[in-house]
Queue: 2 jobs
Job 1
Amino acid sequence: MTEGKRRKLGLLAAALLIIAAGSPGRVSAESGARWTVQVSTVDPGKTALPPGLQFAIYESLVHDLSVSTRFKDVLREGDRRADHAVDLLVLHSTVDKYTPGNETLRAVTTVAGWTKVTVHAHVSRADGTVILDRDVTGNVRLFGSNMRVAQNVAHAMTRILEKCPLPATRSRP
Amino acid sequence: MNRTHDYLQRAGACRLKRRDFTILAVVLLASVWQVRAQQRRPSQDSAIPAKHLIGFAGARNGANGALYIEADVVQFEQSGAVAPVAVNIPSIRDVVLGQQSGQVGGVPLTLAKAAVPFSGGRAVSLVSHKTYDTLLVQYVDTSGGLHGAVFQLKRGQGEVFRNELVRKGARVHNDEHAPSKPTAEAHHD
C-alpha cells in the first residue's frame, strides 16, 4: 500500500470516528440513561376510551420504556421510589382523539373499521419544566385486534422519547 | 426332574415378586395422583378459562390459561407454566368489566381466509367473530406502583369472576353487580 493510500484510509477512519462520536442519538442516549421516568396512567380526556384500552396503553408504555436503554429506571404511577429519585421525568398521556374500530369490518372491507388513537404526550421535570409536548398517533388498519392500537401508540411514543434530547442531569454519572 | 421343579419354583417366586412390585408402584402412583388432585381441587373448582392480554406481572402477554381465586389470592395459571402468577386481593384497587368483539381462529384462520379465491375469505370473516368479556384488574405492587391487568374471558364469565372478587373483599369503585356498559367498540359491532 502506498503512502498516499494509507493516509487517505487514516483520514477516512478518523472522519468516521468523529461522525459516530458526534451523532446526537449517542449523546442524548448517554445523558438520558441517568434520568428516571415515571409513567402516569393514561387520561381518557373527553373520549370514550374503554378502561381496558386505557390500561393497555399504560402497560405497553411501561414495558417499552423498560426495554429501551434510554432511562435509568422506569417507574409506575404511585411508585414510592419516585419520592427519592433525583433526576425524575414524569410522562403524562392524555387521549385527544379516539376512533373505535371494528375487527370484523376490517376483515370484510379492508378500508373501513380502523381503530385510531391520538395521545398527547407531555414530559416534564419535577419542577415543571417541559421537556416534550407532542401528539402521537397509533392505529390498526388491517390485521390484529383493537387492543393492538395500544402497542402501536406505545411504540411510537417510545421512539419519540428515545430521540428526544434531554437536559444534563444534576447527579453525576 | 428335581432340578426342573426347583427352577419352576424359583421362577414362580420371582414372578410373584415382580407382580408385588408392580402393584406397589401402581398404588404409589395412584396415591400421589390423588394427593395432587386434592391439592388442586380448590383452584379447579372456581377456575375460569381466560386469555391474559397484558399487565399481569409475570404472565406472558397473549397466554391462555385459567384464572381462579384461592384464599385471598387471585391466580393465573398459564397453560404449560410451572407455577401460577398471583396477586393478593387486598392489593386490588378496582375491577372493571368491558366487552370487545374480535375474529376467531387467530393467524391460521386469517391465512386460510386470505387463501380462499375470489375474496371468499371476507364472507367467512362475517361469521367468524365473537364477543368477549374483558376484565381489568387494577392492583398495586409492593412499592406502590399501579398495574392494570387485562384478561379476555368468555361472555358472561367476567361478571361471575368480578362478583367472586367483590365477595372476597376486592375494592370496586363502580360497585354495580351488572357488567359495565359495552364499550364503543362492541357497540359498533
Note: Chain A touches chain B at residues 41, 48, 50-56, 58-60, 75-81, 98, 100-105, 107-109, 115, 143, 145-147, 150 (CB under 8 Å).
Job 2
Amino acid sequence: MRQPRFGEFSTRDLQGRGKYTQVPTAHFTRVLRIGLTEPRERLLALWLILPSFVAIALLSLSPLVDSLWLSLHDVDLAVLASQPYVGLRNYTTAVTDPEFWGTLGRTIYFTGVSVGLELLIGLVGAVLLNEEFRGRSVIRSLLLVPWAMLTLSTALMWFWIYNPTYGILNGLLLRLGLLDTPRVWLSDPFWAMQAVVLADVWKMTPFMTLLLLAGLQPIPQELYEAAVVDGATRWRTLRHIIIPLLKPMMLVAVVFRTLQAFKVFDMVYVLTAGGPADTTNVLALYTYRQVFRYLHVGYGSALSWLMASITLILVVAYMRLLRGTTEV
Amino acid sequence: MRRRQMVVLLGAVLAGDRLTLAASSAITSRLRILVGTGDYESAARPFFAQFEGQTGTKVTLDLVPYEGRFNKIIAAGASNVPTFDIVRADVIWIPQFVQAGWLEDLTGKLPKSFLTQITKSALDAVTLKRRVYGVPAFTSAKYFYYNERMLRDAGLTRPPRTLEEFRAHAKKLTSGSGGTKVWGTVMSWVKDEALLVDWVILAFAHANTRLFDDSGAPTFNTGGGLAALEYMVKLLREDKVVDPQSLSIHEDEVEKVFLAGKAAMIFNWEGTEVASRDPKQSQIGGQVRVGLIPAQPPVVSSTVLGPEYYCVMRSSPNKDRALEWIRFMTTATVQRAIFQRGGFFPIYDGMYKDPQLRKEIPDFEMYGEQLQYAHNRPTVVRYAEISDAIQIELHEALLGRKIPKQALDDATAKVRRILHT
C-alpha cells in the first residue's frame, strides 16, 4: 500500500469519518445556495459586505490605482511645473539603469542567503525542539523573543554588537583567537552585507523554526519508531521521513520569508544606510530614496511596481512548486 | 425643584458660553508652526507661551521629527493649502523649497539693522539671488575639539593649526593596540550627510575653492574638492590615524569614542565640550578644549554651517504675525535664554563676546571665531540627490576601490546627469 504523504489521511484514517466530513460540507453548500438564490438574502449579503468593500477600495485599491497613474507620469515634487504622461518611460529608465540592477542583485543575494540560512538553522532547531526533553516549553517560549522584537530595536542592538571597540562580536572572536585585531564589520564592503544578513537571520530564524515545528507535530510517532526498528540512522530518518513530510510546510515558510526578505528596508537603513559606498543598497531602500529623498514620485512608483511584479513572479513560481508537492 | 435646577443649568450654560466668548475675543489671531521634537523645543517652549501671552496670538505647534518635517513641508507646499504659517527647515532643504515657490521672500520685511547682526554666513545660506528666505533659529557649525591632556602627554604643546600639523599630531597621538588602542582622530564618515559636511570643510580648508561654478555645473573634481579627498584618503589609508569605524558612524558615535578617551581630536557640532563635563557621558572631564579647524595656509580655518531656519510659507494668511513671532524668537534675550537652557548657540556674532556667556562656557569666544570661517554646502535644488551621489564616490575612494580623482570624476558625471547639465 502506498504510504500517505504528509497532510493526507490513509484509507484507514478516513473510515468512520466520512459522515463527519461530508455533512458539514453539504450543509454549508446548501446554506450558500439558499443565500444566493433568495433575492432578499442576497441583497442583505451585499449590504453587509459593502462597508468592507468600500474600506478596501479606499485603503488599498485607490492607492494602487494612484501609484500606477503616477508611474506613467513624470511626477517630480521638486519641479511642480507639470506632470506629463510619459507612458512606460519610468519603467524603461529603471531597467536600463545599472543602479537598479545593482540594487536588485544585492536584494536577491540578501534574500537567498538569509532565507537559506534561516531554513537550515530553523530545520535543525525545529527537529531538536520536537524531541522530548526537560525545559522544552521554556526554550520554545524564549525562541519567540528575537522574532517579537521590533526590527528597529534588533538593528540597533546589532549595530552595537558589531561595534569594533565595544562590540561583543569582536570581543568574542578576539578571545577565541579567531581575530588578531578588531574588525570593522560595517565599514567593510564584503562584511557589511554579511553583517546585515546575520542580524536578519538572528531575528527571523525563530519564525522559521516555529513554522517547521508546527509542520513536524502531525508526523505520527509510529513512523519514527518504524525507522528505528528498521535500523535507520538519524540522518536517514531526517532525509527520508522528516524532510519529505515537511516539504509542503517548508515551502510555505520559504514563501513567507522570501516575500518579507525581498522587501528588506529597516535592518539595512539602521545598520548601514546602504553603505559602505553602495554595497548594501537594496531595492526597497533605493525606491524609498527616489520617492522620499529625491521626490521622484513617478519614477519611484514605477520602481514599486517593478518590485511588486518581481514578488508576484516569485509567488507564482512558489505556488506551482507548492502544488507539485501536495498533488497526489 | 426640577424647574429651579433647570434655571441653574441654563445659567451655567450661558455663563460658560460668555466665558468662551470672552476667551476667544482675547485671541486676536492664530499661528500654526511646524517645529521639531528635540531639545530645542524643550528649551524654547516657555517662549512660545510667552509670545501668546504678550500678543494674544494663539500658537499651535506641530512637533514633527526631522525626516517627517521635510515630507510635511513638501505636502503643505505642493498642495498650496495654508497648513503652516511658519516652518522650521534645515539649511539644505531651502533652495528646493524656494525653487518650488513655497517660501515667502522676507527681503525688505525685516530691518537691515536686524539682519546685519546675524552671522553673515548663516544668512548667506538662505539668501538666494539676493533674496532672503529665512532667519536662523540658532547657529550650528562643526568645531575642532581636542583632548588637551593627550596632546600634552604626547609632547604636543598646542593644537594643530595647519592640515600638515593635523596629520603629524594624529600620527603622534595614535598609539596602543587592541582594547587600549587610541586613535589620532575619529570621523563621521559614514555614507551620509555627515561625510559630505567633513569633505566640504576640508575642501575649503585647502583653498578658497568652488564646488560648483556660476552656471551651476559641478567643479569639485579639481582644486579644494580633490585635495580634500586625497587628504582624507591619506589620513585613513596611508597614515592609518583615523579610527576605521569612521566609515560606519555618525557624529553621535564619534562623540562617544572621543569622550571615552579612544581618540584625541575630532570635528563635531557644538555640544561636545559641554557633554565632556558630564561624568555620565564622559571619561575625559576637564580635558577637552576647542580650537579652530586646521587649514592649509593661507587659509586660516574652515567650517560648515548646519543651522535650521524659520521660514514663512507663502500660503500663510498670517504673514505679518508670523514675522512678529520670528522676531520675538530671535531677540537677544530669547536667544541667550535658549542657549543657557539648551545649549543652542545664538545667531548674533556680538553675543560670542558676551562676558557672562564666556564665563559659563570655556572657549566660548573660539566658537564665535570659528563662525568667521564658515561656509555653506552647495545651494542647489536637488541637494539630497547630489549629496548622495557624491557620498557614494567619496566612500569608493575611502575604501580604496577608486583613486580620488577617478571617484570625483565619476561623481561629477553623476551630478551632471542629475542636473541635466
Note: Chain A is about 75% helix and 0% strand.
